[in-house]
Amino acid sequence: MKPLIIGTPLTPSAIRVMLLGSGELGKEVIIALQRLGVETIAVDRYADSPGQQVAHHAHVINMMDGAQLRALIEREKPHLVVPEIEAIATDMLVQIEQEGLARVIPTARAARLTMNREGIRRLVAETLRLPVSPYKFANSLEELRAAIAEIGFPCFVKPLMSSSGKGQSKVDSAADVEAAWDYAASGSRVTQGRVIVEGMIDFDYEITQLTVRAMGADGNIGTHFCEPIGHVQVQGDYVESWQPQAMSPLALQRARDIAKKVTDDLGGLGIFGVELFIKGDEVWFSEVSPRPHDTGMVTICSQVQNEFELHARAILGLPVDVSLRAPGASAVIYGQLKEKGIAFAGVDEAL
To answer: What pLDDT, on a 0 to 100 scale, did the predictor assign at position 2?
Structure first.
């Protein structure tokens, strides 16, 4: 890839980047891109999303509608299209990439594979043959019961496509199965009637291995690893993260070997959040997101270049620095209410 020539936003010379999904993480990516002189286009399924509040341009569409997505890309003519969520018409992204309308980050194939748990699980476990938890897929309540009978209790039932823990549940006994099926259907980004059952792994802790694919001075793509991030999740949402996570040299090497094999196969440029389970020196792959990861918010205070800056620089073909500035930790304050215009008092005391 030739390095992009960065022009001036809102002029014909501008490099234009469109984000599909413009939540809190997307907002930080937009800010990082703007600091590099990029013209930004924030797209989401609702108005006034966090990223739309800071972007040069904002649009509201149904991103699962391929025709709407294509029409917007043809109208805005972005150089790069950056998926920030899973719920996108990825088949249309494949067409757009093949026709040369825009470059999809990291690749349209990566976006399609990671948009649902079946695609990425089959790639990692069956093609790359990397260690994962036991798993089965089910299309009905009856198939789910049969899958769980084979996997055993406890286990986890998840929709094929969801985020932030939506639709996921732990199943401890046969009495929980029907409720888990119903909850998975309610939490899916797309009504599919298909779920994955994952066996429970006895692990000590889980990490996010932020992995950056970026252009080197020699013109070749290199892989860079941030220090491992430990985290705690509650109901699928991250509540605390810290960097670095203490782990054995062997476990760290195995985690990075897995992360490199997965990201090499997905290809392209940018940052990947690779989640892994660790027990002693043993490592299992969990999930991967081809974009900045919520647990990586800690990098804002801990790294020389945070995960959003790394993503922005990598996709533009610029050099990256994954150095740790100092150990750091982050904690999330959730609004708790499904309301607009939430306000927080006592910020001065908290800080």
So the answer is: 67
